[in-house]
Design a protein that fits this description.
Chain lengths: 289, 759, 158
Amino acid sequence: MKWFDYAAPKTLSEALALLAAHPGARMLAGGTDLLVQMRAGRKPADLIIDIKNIAELNELRYERASGLTLGAAVACYRIYGDAAVSRAYPSLHQVASLIGGTQIQGRASIGGNLCNAAPSADSIPLLIALGATCRIAGAGGERVARVEEFCTAPGKNILAAGELLVSMHVPAPRPGSGASYLRFIPRNEMDIAVAGAGVAVELENGKFRSARIALSSVAPTPLFVREAGDWLTGKPVNGESIAGAAEIAKAAAKPITDMRGTKEYRRHLCSVLTRRALETAVRRAQEVQ
Amino acid sequence: MSMPTYKVIGTRPVRHDGADKVTGRAIYGADVQLAGMLHGYVLRSPHAHARILRIDTGKAQAFPGVMAVVTADDFPRTPDRIVDLGEGETPLSCVRGNMLARGKVLYRGHAIAAVAAVNMHVAEEAASLIEVDYEPLACALTAPDAMRADAPVIHGSLRMKELGAPTDTPGNVAEHFRHVKGDIEKGFAEADLIVEREFDTATVHQGYIEPQNATALWNNDGRVLIWCSTQGAFVVRDVTACVLDLPVSQVKVTPTEIGGGFGGKIPVYLEPVAAMLSKKTGRPVKIVMSRKDVFEATGPTPGSHMKVKIGARKDGRITAAQAYLAFEAGAYPGAMVGPAGMTVFAAYDLEHVTIDGYDVVVNKPSTAAYRAPGAPNAAFATESVVDELAQKLGIDPIEFRLKNAAKEGTRRADGPKFRKIGCVEVLEAMKNSPHYKTPLQGPNRGRGVALGFWFNVGLPSSCTISVNSDGTVNLVEGSTDIGGTRTSIAMQAAEVLGIAAEAVQPTVVDTDSVGFTAVTGGSRTTFATGWAAYEAAQDVMRQLKERAAKLWETEAAGVEAAGGVFRSGDRSMSFAELAARLGETGGPVVGRGAVNPRGVGGSFAGSIADVEVDPETGKTTILRFTCVQDAGKAIHPSYVEGQMQGGSVQGIGWALNEEYWMSEQGAMMNSSLLDYRMPTSLDLPMIETCIVEVPNPGHPFGVRGVGEANIVPPAAAVANAVCHAAGVRLFRLPMNPPAIMEALWKPGGKSSQLVPRNP
Amino acid sequence: MQRKVHVRTTINNQAVEFLCEPRQSLLECLRDIVGLTGTKEGCNDGNCGSCTVVLDDRIVTSCLVLGVEAEGRKITTIEGIAAGNQLHRLQQAFLTNAALQCGICTPGFIVAAKALLDSEPNPDEERIRLWLAGNLCRCTGYDKIVRAVSECAREAKA
């Protein structure tokens, strides 16, 4: 690796000042993507800003009324280690438990997963399905963006020069709601999704009150398939409607052929995974009811 | 025949190097630290095939912290000759050319130049400043592609060896050999059923967890001192001496602990390069490969294209078998197709056989041995066809194999006649195993079996044993210990000496300190170095009997020893009591053993695999797996089981997910342990083992090597299981989820033959 | 101006200070600067687990931590697992179960398995396999490793 400097600011304003002064700086949370990319000579940086000492980026707070605030640097293990969060968001517990292995989960953050903007990112389809938003800070102040707007291309996101992701906010789970993320990998752990589906549903009187579906690894960015969820709205909760939504998700996928799978195979997986994820989400919703 | 009873052999002592390895104290190659040590970095080719037009190292030389840069021009220009590489011979020009390229690069990852600097980051940064102009050339990446008439020629000087004789034929085929037994046409004419299939296997890597490394010091007395992780310190010594044009006595290699090898740490890549950097700087230089280097620049095992045709009568007797084997050598000749030809039908007693083998150079890293090299590829083909025959003839697959099993006296198509072997015994043990006797139930599930053979090797080994006054002995040997061989060797000495395994202190030493010892490979270490220890221990016993005779004022011939007690008439003395009296009876006792054993005994192994295939995703789950293997005599059963389990799991990885994923330009796209998917603990069940013991008449304790045969059958067993679970037979490894789905999607039903996918 | 950083940390319950470049990983610092070479490098990108250490009560791959991040933190390496001359029962179980062959992955497995048993004394086989999925072993097929850890889990239960 080429030489870089290191800074570990204690406040958000310090971090923003450093960022403003060093356009070539990169943020270090868990480092599980950053250090690998830097070693491979991709995305070099002259300054690494370690954001783990900043309070706002370490916040993990769930309130029944307002939902979950998830600091950008919160490591996965803190999510699945938090009983209240795990109870309220079993799907988030699930995603935090499947990124990397135990060691990676000790470092990697959902915020980092989002900023890295990989098409295969496991947490992003679920965040999209859950309707999560991002709190972004910059020299000019703060703004909020929806997660489905955050990634713009492989490895690219909407953060402008001088901006950083502070936290994500996930709405409080409503009665009758359930969510799930399911990915397909050839191994059972330590692998990159060949395809993945994140879904969230809200049920009422045996019907879908609403649904949101997003996919990983089948487009340049995590793919929000709004039409699949919309199509489910008002439909009865049964195998037929679930299969219909899965087919819409499959049709929306625009995968490529690479070492992880062919186009055809990935499209096929979208349908299988969406269906299976919906089945789990429905079961969770029914358990809550 | 009753088995002899042993006191030490067959027990399970804690290994002698155990405490150091569970506490982090054991020193592996990368752990070597020397005063003033520099770090080296090797610049590698981004092209799979290109002419090198210019190399300019000026900017790198000038970079702050850089102490030296070397290229192929720094090698001594000695004339070409043949070099012994430990498990085969090859021209010096190929060995040298693979260490640093001259004129052309032949694969992506081919070494171009090396930099020594104050730390590895500086060395890496400086290497990026080396300017290399390339003229990219078209590349050939698979054996079938490289054999085409219009394929790019990789070595202009290569001429094919045809049936043992040189020819003037240029191209990428280094050699074509043929083994013939009987009359193949006659044999097929006698068959009621003939199955002929084509198979492909992808390039796979040994996947040892420790990357290659070397530390070298060109000392001021002119001697080159090397510390490295290697399967054969003497091979490193001899190859380094050869490349650097030094007498072997001028090179001393100290083998450190080694983090896995499986055949991949026999070739020499870094040591002469580190030595040249040390010569230029006057300081020790350490080079450690990155994982990417390991994948791109060390020898994987060949990808292969094979055709196997077998005919059988209705009663299940095979009448004829024919194989076509084209193996990828990588950048330099030497694909493991020879061993593939020796093993492809070795498990069967056949009358009519023809085997054709082709050694084909391609633009991939020069291949190396990988645990029974060549045999798993060949067994995948043969055992798939055998399974199909058994299925179509309605015969139990183990019964089918028993009807055709090789036995003592069977002559292989490549010549050798089997001495006592355990092929039938392995099949019987498979049939009687708890696994095979338990029916497999449930949808999408299938069971597969397969059989495999590996011939094992002998080769020279040396050992000395000196007796300590407290009744223990020190055992000095030259076989680097990859999987507990210190202990399996020490146990054989202990058995002879009549003392406990713990009373033998084994040490693996450098090339100055023990007689020549060949590589830890070919399943030979417990067999051959164990034999050297046996001889050294016998030598000690001869001398100790003389000492006892001296004390008792009798003839040595009248002294008997058993179970650690020396006796003559009614007088007796323990090993320890006698050891305490060496000073008064003539001084130290040192025994020596130096062997080059001929009595090597091949090993058979069988796999039973139960799988479940998800019909929606194509993912295969291993539900249950059993490995049966003939160990001859298991010296330390735990480590024999360990070999069987490890080999089985490598075979499972090969079967399901491992492969070099190459771009059309010859770049490996998955050169990390994330994307080169070796099995994790979560991908496997416990691996059941059954050790069969059919003693090898060619070894004092009946030992056969156990390191390799176990990796031969698993891929075929898994393929057969997948076939019975999913209803489709796959003809290409790996059988990853997309490949299985594509097979399921093929029109024409589940039994139609699949077209192999290009990598 | 390229300056090394002074890091004050605690390694295996002992205060340790070292100087490193910001680009050096914790793994490099442990091995090349502090001299604790028991922690091994297998891939340098977090995918083999050989460099597993405990960082403030969580296991991490030390190749994906910068040395400078160790400032003020607590680290346990394989060298800190035994109590003086007394092997930890996991280390003993690895020996008696022959749970190692070449031994290069062993430090990582023992550090990771100990962290599991410290937080969950009675994991079942599935839990052990999941927890250890980030540690690759190429020699053993995992069988004897899982047995060794299971044995310690059973002892805890007894």
